[in-house]
Amino acid sequence: MKNWQDTLVQPTASLEVAIEKLDLSAQQILLVTDEDKKLLGTVTDGDVRRALLKRLDLTTPIVQIMNRQPKMATADWSKARLLSFMEQQQLLQLPVVDADQRVTGLETLHGLLQKPRQDNPVFLMAGGFGKRLHPLTKTCPKPLLKVGDKPILELILESFVSSGFHRFYISTHYMPEKIREHFGDGSRWGVTITYIHEEVPLGTAGALGLLPHHEITLPLIMMNGDLLTTQNYLALLAFHEELGGSATVCVREYEYQIPYGVIESQENRATGIREKPVQTFNVNAGIYLLSPELVKSVPPDTHLDMPDLLQQEIQADRGVNIYSLKDYWLDIGRMDDFNQAQTDVSELFNG
């Protein structure tokens, strides 16, 4: 938000003054405010070009060309929410205002992309046996099976790193030494990795109880270590921040076609016939965003599955959100999935 004050301009300023201020501020936008700095509108390079094409006089007050319904953010918006909103709205700049719509700053897409670090912790689950991928997993833990020229878990890690995440926890159980040997302390990727070892399998959520709870002060992303996805994690963070609640569960739409004609009836009389109907379900995609309070509620050394933990939150009405994945997603659980991943990976991750 450097030098955002240079973008402030009064609505009575002329088009000529606006051009001069746009050149001076080099932000490609002016924030039109009243005497109390309340945002009235915005003027961009595009607005000026359109005014000149209409042959408006340079003395024309900018109130006549400004956008009177500008998009805006507040100071409590996270970087993830800002980036997601600007991407959705195709914005290069976004004014920041207080509760009274007084301007307090200006965020730019360029500036946000120069601040890549995301402090939210990421917990990758890598302790499973991968029995459905035998014989491949008899000598190698499933997260280290290569998809293309890299292990599955490395592709996942790098997708988070490219989005700015740097605090990682990896849960281990089966062949933990091989996972530790490959990833080390994370310094090869410029991140930190802490290992959470399950002496006995604790279920799909039990490892949360082994995390150093005092370090979990921000929402935590938890993800199965056998997924191939192009999921936008910043959009997920922004979604959760906007809705609040104790958890957000990523779901994937799954269609199932019943291979028979279905007879609809009331008592003993048919009321309709549907031939091979398709049913649609939201299935768990194995990616979660959990509040610090929820993470800390899981006691150590307790067997717990994620459906039970989430059901507990639903029954307590603490807010469990559903985030529908539209990006590529593949659960590499079976040999067919593993072979499909080999086909897909070059197109998804090359470059």
UniProtKB/TrEMBL annotation:
Entries under CDD domains matching the protein: CBS_pair_NTP_transferase_assoc (cd04607), NTP_transferase_like_2 (cd06426)
Entry keywords, A to Z: CBS domain
Keyword field contains Acyltransferase: no
Occurrences of domain CBS (ranges): 1-58, 66-122
SUPFAM superfamilies: CBS-domain pair, Nucleotide-diphospho-sugar transferases
Domain of life, per lineage: Bacteria
InterPro entries assigned: CBS_dom (IPR000644), CBS_dom_sf (IPR046342), Mannose-1P_guanyltransferase (IPR050486), NTP_transferase_dom (IPR005835), Nucleotide-diphossugar_trans (IPR029044)
Keyword Nucleus: no
Protein name in UniProt: CBS domain-containing protein
